[in-house]
Every structure is written in C-alpha cells, then in structure tokens.
Amino acid sequence: MVVTDTMEPGHGANMEGGGxxxxxxxxxxxxxxxxxxxxxxxxxGDKRSHGGRRDASSxxxxxxxxxxxxxxxxxxxxxxxxxxxxxxxxxxxxVSSHIRGYSGGEGSRKNENQDEGLSGxxxxxxxxxxxxxxxxxxxxxxxxxxxxxxxxxVEWANTVVGRGDATLEEVVxxxxxxxxxxxxxALTVECVAHDPDTAVAALLDAxxxxxxxxxWLVAHVGCSFPATVISRxxxxxxxxxxxxxxxxxxxxxASVNKILNHLADRHLADIRRSLHTILLRTFDGATDxxxxxxxxxxxCLAVTSRSRAVLAALTSGLDTLLMPSERLVALASQVSxxxxxxxxxxxxxxxxxxxxxxxxxxSAAPSILHLLLQALAPASKLPSSVAGAVNNILQGVVSxxxxxxxxxxxxxxxxxxxxxxxxxxxxxxxxxxxxxxxGGRAVSPVAGLVEQTISTPGNQTLINHLKQLxxxxxxxxxxATANTTLGHLLRCTTKDGASGHQExxxxxxxxxxxxxxxxxxxxxxxxxxxAGTLQPxxxxxxxxxxxxxxxxxxxxxxxxxxxxxxxxxxxxxxNIPLLSELINDPxxxxxxxxxxxxxxxxxxxxxxxVLSLSHAVIFYFYSSLHHTSSIKKVSGVxxxxxxxxxxxxxxxxxxxxxxLLVESVFQPECAHLFGDVKKPDFSSKDTKGELLIQANRQFxxxxxxxxxxxSIFHMGTIGSGHFSKHNQSSTPSPDTVKFHxxxxxxxxxxxxxxxxxxxxxxTVALLLVELISPDIMFNGFPWPEEYIKFTFERDLAIKKTFxxxxxxxxxxxxxxxxxxxxSYCSVLVRAxxxxxxxxxxxxxxxxxxxxxxxxTATHRLLEVMVTAQFLPGPLHMLPxxxxxxxxxxxxxxxxxxxxxxxxxxxxPDRWQELPSGxxxxxxxxxxxRHYTERIQHIIRSNVDRVGHLxxxxxxxxx
Length: 958
Known about the structure:
Elements: H1 27-49, H2 56-75, H3 80-104, H4 112-132, H5 134-155, H6 168-176, H7 179-194, H8 196-210, H9 215-224, H10 226-243, H11 250-280, H12 289-292, H13 294-304, H14 308-315, H15 318-321, H16 325-338, H17 346-359, H18 364-376, H19 384-411, H20 419-424, E1 436-438, E2 441-443, H21 445-454, H22 460-477, H23 479-490, H24 499-512, H25 525-533, H26 540-554, H27 562-573, H28 576-583, H29 589-597, H30 607-625, H31 630-647, H32 651-664, H33 668-671, H34 692-695, H35 734-752, H36 759-772, H37 792-804, H38 807-816, H39 826-841, H40 852-867, H41 878-881, H42 887-903, E3 911-913, E4 919-921, H43 933-941, H44 943-946, H45 950-957
Antiparallel strand pairs: 1-2, 3-4
Helix pairs in contact: 1-2, 2-3, 4-5, 4-7, 5-7, 5-8, 6-9, 7-8, 7-9, 8-10, 9-10, 9-11, 10-11, 11-13, 11-14, 13-17, 17-19, 18-19, 18-21, 19-22, 21-22, 22-23, 22-24, 23-24, 23-25, 25-27, 26-29, 28-29, 28-30, 29-31, 30-31, 30-32, 31-35, 32-35, 32-36, 36-38, 37-39, 38-40, 39-40, 39-42
C-alpha cells in the first residue's frame, strides 16, 4: 500500500529522542490517533478472523491503520510495541502476497508498488530514528527486524526462489527481491553500523532460533561488515561445538560453512584472519573449553566444508603460523584431551588429517606439505612421538594417492582429480595451471619445496617423501604436467651435485618414461620437457641451472642412474639444435659443452644436427682461446676435442670440422691468436670497441656445406659507408701464440684420428690450397720444367700468405707428418720453393744468416719435404746445412731439389700405409749422380762446419 500524506499538520514534527511525546502535537491529537489506531486494528483483526476477503474498503482501512501506526511509532513511545506488531503483520501480508505472486506469475502481483511505498516510508522513518538516537532505537529495531525476517525465512524457506535446493546466493537474491524483506535487511545493516555488538548478538540469536533458514541474512550482513560477522559466526560455531563435545547438530556446521562460502569470494582475507585467530588461541595459554576445542572445531569445519576457498583460507600459511616447532609440540600435548572427547580414536584423527591434506589445493597444498616436511626435519627437534605422527600422516597421504592412482584408475579410466596434487604442480583452485615470477625467475611449488628440502641438513627422510609425492604428481597428472614439473625441477637452484636433487630428478624421469613410447622423437614427453627448459629465450640463470642438473645426471659415475641414462641421452640428442644455440651464449656455453661431453655423439644423428653442432663447438673453441686464463683455455679446448672427436667419426662431420677450424685461423677475428702480422689499415668511422666474435652470437648456428667458400664468422654489414677499422685485440706474446697453435694442432690431430686412411690430413691439405691459392687452374702434382718463371706472381702471393700467417707453416708441417697427404698441397710446396729460390738468387748478402726470416722459411720448407719423404734419404741432411751457406750455394741446392721433384712427381699413390697407421714412400726413388754433385761440392767447400754430413752422400753413391 502507499502511505499518503493525510496526517494532520503536526504529524510531520520530528521527535529527536523518541523518549517523550512529539513536540508541537497536543495530547488530544495523540489520544485521538491512538483511539483510531485501536479501532481500525480491531476491525481489521475481526475481518481477518472471519476470513473475509480484502475489498477496497478493507485496503483503505489497512492503509489508514498503517499511517496511524507510523505516526504513533514516531510520537508515542508507549504505543511502539503495538505499532511495530501491526506493521510486522502488514509486512507479513505483503511478503505472503509477494511469494504467492512469485509462484503464480507477474499477473497476480498487483500491490507491488503499494508494498514498496510502505516499505520505503518505514525504512525512512526508522532510519531517521536510528540516526537521531541509536542507543534507544538500535536494540529495538534490530530485535524486531531479525525476528520478522527469521519468522518469514522459516515459513517460506522452500518457496522463496521456487525450489528447495537453491544455493545461498540464490536465496539471498530471492529475499532481496521482496520489498519488505529488503527493507528489514537494510535496517539490520544500519543497526550493525550503529551498534555492532547488540545488533550482531540479536542477529545470531535469531539465526540460532531459526536454524539454516536465516543464513541468507547473516551472509548478507556479512558482506557489509565481513570482519565482525565472520568472527561472531565462528565464535558462535565454536561455542556450540565445545558445549556439545564435538557433536553439534550438523546444520550448525553447515550454516557456518555456507555463510563463510558466501563471503569467500570477496572477503577471503578476513576469513583467513578469523580462522587463524581461533587457532592462535591454542597457543596463548588459555585453558577454557573453547580454546581447547579450537583445533578440533577447525578440523571438523574444514572436513565438512564444500568450499575450496574456505578450505584454502584455513590451510594456507600454516607452515609459518605453526612454526617454530614449539607450537607443534603444544598441539601434540592436547591430542590426549581431544580423544575421545572430539574424536573416537587416534586413527580417526589421523584419517581426518590425511583427507584434509588430500582435499587441500591451490597455494595451500605446498604450504601444508612444507609444514609437514619442516616437522620431520632434525632441526625442528620435535619429540619422537610427534615426528612419528607426522611421518604416519605423510605415509597415509602417499598411500591414499597410490590407491587412487593405481587401483581406482583401473575401474575408472578417466583421470581422478586430487586437489593436493593439482596444488603441488602449481594449479589454481579451479585446477588451472598458475605461473608465477619472483625475482625475475619462474617459481613453482615443486621447485620451492625441493630447494628448501635440499638445503635442510639431515634431509634423507624428507627427500624420500618429497620424491614419492612428486613422482605421483607426474604419474597421476599426465604428460603435460610431467613436462612442466621436470622443467621446474631442472631449474632449481641447489648446491652443485646435491644428491637429493639428483634422486628426485631421476625419479621424475623414471615416472615420465611411463608415458614414453618405445622410440624417442622430438615429440616424446621427455624430449618435449627438455626442449621446454632449454629455450634460449628463457632467463639465463634458469637455463644454466638446467644444464648443470643435466650434466650431473648424465655423469656415469653414479650407477644408480643407469636406468635413465639411455632415455635421457636419447632425449637430449633430439634437442641438439637447442644445445648448439646455447653454446653461442658466453654464459651458458661452458655448461652446454659439459652436457655434450656426456652424450654418445658417435651414434648416427641427423645431418643438420651434425652441421649445426660442429659450427657451435668451433665457435666455442675460438672463444675459449680468447680467455686470458690458460686453465680456461685448456679446459675449454679439451671439451671441444671430446665432442669434435665423436662428430668426426662421420666423413661429413670431419670435413665440416676441419673446414671451420682451418678457415677461422685466416679470419681477422682469430688470426691474431696465432701471431698474424698482417696489419690492415682502413680509413673509417670510429666504432664501438666490441669484438665481432661477440656480435656473431645473433647469427646463431647454421648449416655449412663442405668444400664451399663459406666462413664461420659474419664479417659485417655492407652498404653503410666505409668498412669499420678492424679493432684487433692486443697481440698475444710469442709463448701464447705457440700455445694457441699447439692447441689447434692437437685438436686437428684428435679429429683426424677418428677417420682411417689419413682422410683428415688430406682434407687439411686440400683446404690449405683452397684458402691460400684460390686460383686452382695450375694446382696439380707435376712440377714444371722452369722453376722461377712459372706463375711468378701467384708464387709470391702464396709466400706472402705464409709470411702474414705463421700458423700456415704449422698447418703445412701437420700435413707433412701424414706424408702422403702433403701431395695434395704440393702446389704450395712448389710455390714456396720457387719464391725462396728467387729471393736467394737476388740476395746481395754474404751469408744466409743475414736474412733470418728467409733462412727460417727455407729451413722449414726443407724440413716439411723431408718429413713427408718428398726427398729421399741422402737429402735428409739438407735442412742442417742451409744455415752455413752463402745465398748462391743455397740457390744451387734449391735448384737440385726442384729438379728432383720435377723428375719424381709426389703422387699420393707413391705412399703405402703401414700396419702402424703411418705412411711409407715405396719404393724409395733412386738418387742419380747429377742430383748430388753440387751438394757434395758445397759440403767439401764447408767441410769445417758440415763435413760430418758427407757420409750421407758417400752412402748414396754406393
């Protein structure tokens, strides 16, 4: 009904305190209004008692009665109870009409506007009175409002939303759609705002009397005052639990759970605070029944709760709340008091805790597990009985998960949802994966638990429990979760070689192999998991941790990991491109190489993998030579040799490796490491002082084709002006150059030893010809008739290359040790012989010692020819006499050598392989007299210095 303004002018006067009659209103008026109210109320009561139908006159009388009741409520204190009783009856009629209209459809709800009018007038009036005198009106209004709402809720409990199985949210929405109920609910909220203690007490009393039917009002008020309502609801539930010795009516715990569940979406922090406050009372020294019943109450509340949010609020943060261990000891001391008062037996209590742990998901799952592991740690110093109970709980959790995973899954092929395992893998309350980033690195519950457990002294028992649980996560949650878990475990930050970490990793890989097919491929679970954790785009330190963990796992010194070694190596071999890319990173290169050193690379691998890995390892080789520390150089080159020797078992890999190694020594980025004397002088703009070898990282590893003109390094950008001036690093000392050269030659020797028949040395020989003498028209085995006039410019260019790059001499000497292989680069020997002959033929000096560089080159050339058996036995002494000769005498010797080589072509088929693997020239070419006549004459002329060598000549004639 609509309350119209038919009051006398004085009716609108406000009463400030409500404690005396209205000011400005005469006693006659008050008595008249009271008399009219009583008469109308009695008349309406008679009509209702006779079951008369409500016609227009009765509605007008009821409207007039309501107007009078509102007037008396404001202005006549003794009439307030009667006025409130009549208003309650009127509002009840409106609620009944609303509920019937809701059930019958919109057509029967004719008085909705009138209902809202009365409700609005009542809310406005009582609101003003509450504002003016809360101490007077607060208790009265709150008591009256919750009583009416409780009565309506009980009467219309199953029909307010049209069905009896509605959720609490639907019940709240249904009652708030009713104007009288919405008005009284709003008045209750105002009363709580003005006088929380009195209003909440009245609310909870009404809730206790009405049972679950009034839970909607408590939840609605709790949305406005969450902290107050939550604490009072929990306090009431605890009081009932303690008074009933742990066996309260089920609906009481259900009501508490429903109210908390309704408030959990927006006020989870308040719920957590209130629950933890109840728990902390146990440690405050309180001995009352409620304090001692706190933990059993919370356990029962958690077990009966169907809300994951409420369960998470109770269980999250328990590891920090219950530690240090003194609090666990305090809890353990109360167990004897809980049993059998609240729990039938200790077994029932343990089973309840186990199921509570299994039902705990989200971020609370790792918190609970961390608490249990902390309790088992020796540092906690818990009594043996407490530690034993915790150990039993963990074993119970593992047993239950095993039963679900391995037994019930046989009858139910679908995956069984276990919130605890979902939480351990990093899952949210809805089962979705949750990713976090802390301090710039990925964090998962599994990784955090492993790092904390590994750092705990005396952790073997903890590791065993954690290993079992993580293994169950991998098996029960499927390959996708297994991949994520393995990636997080590999990225754990632990001490080098932590045995516990390796145990857990081995167990996870073993579990992951359950989902593995018989043959490994790049899509198999283990390969996919490794690929995910070795991505170059990830944070550097996470990839570094993963590589270190893999290297330790692959170490063959640990016999307990042999069962995973084959699967792990096969999975890594499918990810060779990723490892190749990581080698190019200056921070990750060493760790990636250590992993590669543990892999069996001799087995057939893809051609693309061989090529990309060869390129990456050679890059690492030259990067190692740039180190200032000799130890780092030797260790880095040693790793390269171990990997390259395996890759060289294939002809393709050997050719690729030799090309990359030899090509690089002639490139400006690496040539200075081997003592090059070429000083390019380009006029250019100033550039940053950055080594090009560092800039090459962005080009990654790419496939190189053997016997092609390709370079290991990117040499800059064309089209942006003049070339930048080559910013060469500081020239190494002669000893360092020799050291670098020896490391290079050792690496070449290791690679060449992987192939029989001298294939590697022959490849080096051909590559030297290709790099030093690109004009290959006249490259061949025969030596021409005229030694000095033939290809004169080309010979000088070759000689200049050997002068600018001293390492070329060492490479030529390396080829010569394989004898037959030198035949493939005889064009270089021929060019050097011709150039040196021309130099000494025009030399104006008296002795060869006055031209030390040319003398050294001549001596090395003759040594190369002697080592490769280009020259027969009698001529082996030639390198020993060149230092004492005059230039013209040396010219004669070189001419005789040229004639001998012209007549005895150094073809590879002139050498045969010995059982020892070396090559021997057979048969030894005959020595005609005209080849040694001038040599003998020169020896006789210098008999005082080289006369002892005449025996070689004498033996040759015999």
